[in-house]
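Posted in: Structural Biology > Protein-Ligand Complexes

Title: Requesting predicted complex, zinc ion in pocket

I'd be grateful if someone could produce the 3D structure tokens for the following input. Sequence and ligand are given below.
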Amino acid sequence: MSNRLPCSRCGTTRDVEVVEREEQVTIKGKEISFLAHYSRCLTCGDEFEAPGQLDANLDAAREVYAKLYEAPSPEALVALRARYNASQKAFGAILGFGELTMNSYEKGNIPDPTNRLLLRLAADPLIFKAMYEINSGKIGTTQRRRIEESEGYESAIHWEGLAGLSALLAPLQQEKIEAIARRNGRTVPVQIAAYVGTASFQDYSRLYAEARWSHEKTTPLPSAPAQPITIQGAA
Ligand SMILES: [Zn+2]
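-- Reply #1 --
Done. Output follows.
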């Protein structure tokens, strides 16, 4: 394949061809070999990386590294799937893989970067549950029941974490909790844990009241509102 690119040795645009060769680089202390691509000037023979080739060569090196050192082991994949009590076929369907894909990964084939990402995400029960809700129509009733009764799936239902909690809070409440956490030098989860630790309905009403006051800066609340306070955005 030939192409025209500026050659710095010739000082002008020349016809170039793509050449490839095995190269070694060190990534995170590990030496790896990958197939690098260069452009060769057909006039002077100089070889150089065109801008796109520079990125592609970096990506190729990183991908070799990831396959060798970051890919999930077959044992880890079997354990992940077992946590959701899913068959290979059902687990693959939920993650959007082909029918035989999980089988091949559990036999040692290396997932491509997209599927590696999906497998890592699926280790989070909340994300797995979201994937399941999208794709559960692709699997049979028996598999659905097995998955819904699994330890992994149950953990997503019973504990939805901070993401689940924030979905229940009005934006104003979230802002207030964040602001108080910042002022106290706490993370949001630690601040919420502090509320839970000292919680009473009275404290909670005060949280609402403060939230409203900070939102409507020029209109302090009456000290004892007769009506329940309505928070903008709350159900
Ligand atoms: Zn040249």
